[in-house]
Amino acid sequence: MTKDKNLEIARLQKEISAYIGMGVDSLVFNFDEKGRGTKLHLITLNQRHNQSFLFHATEGSDKVNALEAMLEYVRTYKDATSSYTIQWSVRGENVLNTSYFRAKNVLEALDKLFYDRDPNSITVFSVMLNPIS
Predict the structure, then answer these.
(1) CATH number of this structure's domain 81-133
(2) In what order do the strands lie in the sheet with 97-103?
(3) What angle separates helix 63-80 from helix 5-20, to the nearest 10 degrees?
C-alpha cells in the first residue's frame, strides 16, 4: 500500500508545529514548487502584532521532502542559532513592538522580520543578541 502524500504532509506539519510549540492555526506552510524542487517557507502569525514573520526556509525534492527538512531543522535549531530581540514599529504608527527571532546572525534575524514585506514599511529601533540561557 502506498502512503497518501496528503496524510504524510498533514502529519509532518502537525509534528513541526508541536516542536515549535505553536498551533497549526498560527503557522503558514508556504510551498513554492519550481522546476524539480520545492521550497518551503514556514511563516509564523503573530496575533498580538497582527503581523507575519519568517520562521525558516527549507528546500526539498517535493513537499514531503521539504517538510522532512523543516522537521530536522526544528528538532535542532535551538542548538544551532542564537536568540535575538528586535524592537520595531510599523511606519506611521506610534506603537513600539518587540519580537523574538532565532537566527545564525543579526542579518538573518532582520531577514526574518522583513520577509515578504516592503522594507520601508517598518522602522527598526534596536536589535539585541539575547544572553545564552
Answers:
(1) 3.10.20
(2) 97-103, 82-90, 122-129
(3) 10
Alpha carbon 132 to its chain centroid, in Å, reads 21
pLDDT tens digits, one per residue of 108-117: 999 999 999 9
Give the residue from 59, 53, 55, 57 showing the smallest Cα distance to 78: 55
Q: How far is CA 38 from the centre of its chain?
A: 16
Q: Could you list the beta-strand ranges (E) of 14-112.
A: 27-34, 37-46, 51-60, 82-90, 97-103
Give the whole-angstrom CA distance, residue 99 versus residue 56: 15
pTM, 2 dp? 0.89
| pLDDT value for 90 | 93
Tell me the residue length of the chain: 133
Domain with CATH 3.30.160 in the chain: 1-80
Low-confidence ranges of the chain (pLDDT < 50): 1
CATH class name, domain 1-80: alpha beta
Please give the Cα distance from 29 to 6 (Å, whole number). Answer: 13
Give the Å distances, CA to CA, from 1 to 4, 64, 108. Answer: 9, 17, 42
